[in-house]
């Protein structure tokens, strides 16, 4: 029996993560990478998801069968450079930083190029470009545009925004969905005003914009419509690494299946909640689709019954913890 080709692909990185939490809890050698977190966030709502990335010779090969068994089709380009090996250091709920090991490969080394994409991606309906160096993201977006992909989503990389604002903003007319974090939105917009930033980004071209606000959920905008706030799902957070990527995967999966932007954000929020409860990208396996549906129904009902939509001009918009990127960063 033939296996259905993925209608959604994720392009990004694979990493090896060593995570240090504020209380000193340390977990070494976790399977990580924005491509895996986003793929599994999408897989919660998609029967099959494609993942295209580069892979270094030291990436633990035992993780690959696990991903395939979970319904993720892998298109991996082998490169001689070492994998990205991070220290993920958390100081508190709103502050973290990633520090590469001395012998780690770089983000540029491990970022897939347009000529390395699988031919089967041309049959897809949607593609999510996860955080990578700006030049690589731009080349991928333009390549996907040339193949007339219906939905192109992009999550920018904070490290490559400063000094390159115009280049990032220049990609917006080419995108269907734009999914920055609060800090990235602030860097691009020039001030910390996620509501106004979301409206400005939507006016620039994307059909939908969602700004991830960490513990405060996300702000969702479609041009010409009032902004909406989607809160986080309260869970016991074990490790927030990858929650923002899982959110993006869940969002794009739902959007590809015809959901409106707010409903897509609810799907993304559910995906992020599962990631927060575990350690490592594979921690959310096996996927609990029944619990995911329960959380989705509960969240969607709460959003539907919530206060009137927020907007740039609204004075009583929900308060946010400035700088928090703990859950959806």
**How many alpha or pi helices?**
9
Estimated structural class: alpha/beta
Low-pLDDT segments: 311-327
Would you give the CATH topology? UDP-N-acetylmuramoyl-L-alanine:D-glutamate ligase
Q: Could you give me the name of the CATH homologous superfamily? A: Ribokinase
CATH architecture assignment: 3-Layer(aba) Sandwich
What is Rg? Answer: 18 Å
- How many domains make up the 3D coordinates? 1
| CATH domain class | Alpha Beta
Q: Would you report the number of β strands?
A: 13
Enumerate the strands of the largest sheet in spatial order, edge to edge or round the barrel: 5-4-1-8-9-10-11-12-13
**Fraction of residues in β-strands:** 15-25%
Helix content: 25-40%
Instruction: Name the overall outline.
Output: globular
Order of helices and strands: EEEHEHEEEEHEHEHHEEEHHH
Biggest beta sheet summary: 9 strands, mixed
């Amino acid at each position: 029996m033939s296996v259905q080709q993925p209608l959604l692909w994720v392009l990004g990185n694979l990493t090896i993560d060593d995570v240090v939490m504020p209380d000193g809890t340390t977990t070494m050698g976790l399977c990580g990478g924005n491509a895996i977190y986003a793929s599994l966030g999408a897989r919660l709502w998609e029967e099959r998801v494609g993942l295209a990335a580069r892979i270094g010779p030291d990436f633990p090969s035992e993780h690959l069968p696990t991903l395939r068994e979970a319904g993720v089709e892998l298109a991996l380009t082998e490169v001689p450079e070492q994998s990205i090996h991070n220290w993920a250091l958390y100081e508190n709920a709103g502050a973290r930083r990633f520090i590469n090991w001395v012998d780690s490969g770089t983000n540029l080394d491990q970022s897939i190029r347009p000529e390395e994409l699988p031919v089967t991606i041309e049959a897809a309906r949607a593609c999510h470009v996860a955080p990578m160096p700006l030049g690589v993201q731009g080349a991928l977006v333009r390549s996907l545009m040339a193949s007339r992909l219906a939905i192109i989503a992009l999550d920018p990389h904070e490290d490559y925004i400063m000094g390159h604002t115009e280049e990032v903003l220049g990609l917006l007319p080419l995108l269907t969905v734009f999914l920055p974090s609060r800090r990235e939105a602030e860097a691009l917009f020039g001030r910390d005003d996620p509501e106004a930033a979301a409206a400005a980004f939507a006016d620039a071209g994307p059909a939908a914009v969602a700004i991830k606000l960490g513990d405060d959920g996300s702000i969702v905008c479609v041009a010409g419509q009032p902004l909406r706030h989607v809160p986080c799902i309260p869970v016991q957070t074990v490790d927030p690494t990858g929650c923002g990527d899982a959110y993006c995967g869940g969002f794009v999966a739902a959007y590809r299946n015809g959901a409106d932007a707010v409903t897509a954000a609810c799907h993304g929020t559910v995906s992020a909640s599962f990631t927060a409860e575990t350690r490592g990208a594979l921690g959310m396996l096996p996927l609990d689709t029944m619990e995911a549906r329960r959380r989705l129904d509960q969240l969607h009902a709460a959003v539907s019954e919530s206060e009137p939509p927020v907007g740039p001009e609204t004075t009583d918009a929900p308060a946010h913890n400035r700088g928090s990127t703990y859950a959806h960063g």
